[in-house]
Specification:
This protein is an alpha/beta fold and about 475 residues long. The chain contains 18 helices and 17 strands. The chain has two domains: about 130 residues, Roll (Nuclear Transport Factor 2, Chain: A), CATH 3.10.450; about 270 residues, Rossmann fold (3-Layer(aba) Sandwich). An eight-stranded mixed sheet has the order 6-9-11-10-12-13-16-17, with helices on both faces. The radius of gyration is 22 Å and the shape is globular.
Length: about 475
């Protein structure tokens, strides 16, 4: 096991002034898209609104502009009962004290300074409207999710106002490469970042954390997967990243109550390795899989599935991967983030209590039916996780493994790192490194900031990219080749 010293890492850190704490729930705001009603539900809601002309629908960008300006104005309660929402959205809003309570959830973003015009898009099969907003503490896109004109969700996303264009480089090319999803007869948009030159190059497949994620794994102002792709490509390592299945086809997947981590991530990871092996400039004997957060937790399962695939991975990288149950992590994260608040409102406490009450049902998974939804996922998803022992599976991996952990991470903590150390730290094929001063996204920050650290325009720490590149370069040396 290799453990970098605190002094060596800290020497690279510059002092920073940190913004006030933001509750993580604000980053996903109050209603996840996974709570959006199905098309059938929306149709039924629409029928119940027939003849009620005073109930507004959100069908155009102009409607979204008007809705969000009222929501962020002095009287957001004017939206209550005036604009059509799905039943699930209505229930979520009521738990938080109506539109006024939801709007108060944004208070720690700071004072609203600017709203850009809404523009239309599609996310997980739903029509969405992106509204770039500048607050005094953070800039975000408010993402208004609609289903047949009914408000079905409200999320925050990476700020797109004044967003930089994809950079060109003299060291690498960015190539559109779609990932086939045979089980759905569909494709996922993806990008292969490949070094200039003839190759063949080693390559890494990037696997996202929990929730719907784009190929950059965008959160707040951070894009860790884009940073990894470009940073590693500059070191002669190709990187493949793609939009997550739940990001592109979430509405369809929500209609399938049997979805597990297999369909969410594992199948696509295995298929991505096969896809890369067929690319002209890629060395099929030097393909690795890198998983972040829940994607890191999935790596042992991915390794097991690849054993049955035509092309296997030669190594694995796990970043901020917890071996503990997901529901245990969720409780711990909420407890920590709520402890950072100067005071907890009744609405916030009610939301936390409601979530914990849902999670309590996982204590007896056999009592759940397939239609039971817990924290946005149906019972089969949770039952699969309950049967999955990442530690046990990891101990059986024969290929070289690199496990990385940020010491300022409040989502996956040094407690998780210690569990890994105990289980695999003495194995010759494992290398473990922790980084002082780095958060869950492996950018600079402090644990006490909570989600506020996601508001900075930071990039993945260069030493992390250096360590990953060094790990991958050892495969070329062992094979007697060079990239």
């Amino acid at each position: 096991m290799k453990k970098k010293t605190a002094a060596a890492r800290q020497a690279m850190m510059k002092p920073r002034k940190y913004r006030s704490v933001l509750l993580a729930v604000i980053m996903i705001l109050t209603v996840c898209i996974s709570s959006a009603a199905s098309g059938k539900d929306a149709a039924e809601d629409t029928m119940s609104l027939a003849g009620m002309a005073e109930i507004r629908k959100t069908e155009t960008a102009a409607d979204a502009d008007e809705w969000i300006r009222i929501f962020l104005g002095e009287n957001p309660e004017e939206l209550d009962g005036a604009w059509a929402m799905t039943d699930q959205m209505q229930a979520a809003a009521e738990r938080l004290g109506g539109m006024k309570g939801m709007a108060q959830s944004l208070a720690q973003l700071g004072t609203l300074e600017e709203i850009s015009p809404a523009y239309e898009g599609e996310l997980k099969g739903y029509k969405v409207f992106y509204i770039p907003c500048v607050f005094s503490n953070m800039s975000v896109d408010l993402v208004l999710v609609t289903d047949q004109g009914l408000i079905a969700g409200l999320n925050t996303g990476a700020y797109t106002g004044g967003a930089e264009q994809e950079e060109t480089s003299a060291l690498f090319d960015s190539i559109d490469l779609a990932l086939p999803v045979p089980s759905m007869n569909k494709e996922l948009p993806g990008t292969l970042t490949v070094p200039k030159g003839d190759g063949p190059f080693p390559a890494v497949v990037l696997i996202h954390g929990s929730g719907p994620c784009d190929r950059d794994e965008s959160v707040g102002n951070l894009k860790p997967f884009k940073d990894l792709a470009e940073g590693l490509a500059e070191k002669d390592i190709a990187v493949y990243r793609f939009d997550k299945r739940t990001y592109v086809y979430g509405s369809e997947m929500m209609n399938d109550h049997q979805i597990t981590l297999v369909e969410e991530s594992i199948e696509d990871a295995v298929n991505a390795v096969q896809l890369l092996a067929a690319q002209e400039k890629i060395d099929p004997d030097r393909i690795l899989v890198l998983g972040h957060s829940l994607g890191g937790n999935a790596v042992p399962a991915i390794a097991g599935e690849l054993e049955q695939a035509p092309v296997k991975a030669c190594g694995f990288i796990m970043m901020a991967a917890s071996p503990r149950p997901l529901d245990e992590l969720m409780r711990e994260q909420y407890d920590y983030l709520y402890s950072l608040l100067p005071e907890v409102t009744e609405e916030q406490q009610a939301e936390k209590d409601a979530l914990f009450s849902e999670l309590d049902r996982l204590k007896d998974p056999d009592a759940l039916t397939d239609d039971d939804m817990i924290a946005g996922a149906y019972a089969p998803y949770w039952k699969w996780l309950a049967d999955y022992d990442a530690l046990k599976e990891a101990e059986g991996i024969a290929e070289p493994c690199l496990l990385l952990q940020g010491e300022e991470d409040y989502q996956v903590t040094m407690e998780d790192f210690a569990i890994w150390q105990e289980a695999v730290g003495e194995k010759e094929n494992w290398q473990l490194i922790s980084y002082p001063g780095l958060i869950h996204a492996f950018t600079q920050g402090q644990k006490a900031e909570g989600a506020a650290a996601y508001s900075r325009n930071e990039k993945v720490d260069p030493q992390v990219i250096e360590d990953i590149a060094g790990f991958i370069s050892s495969f070329g040396a062992a094979a007697g080749t060079s990239s």
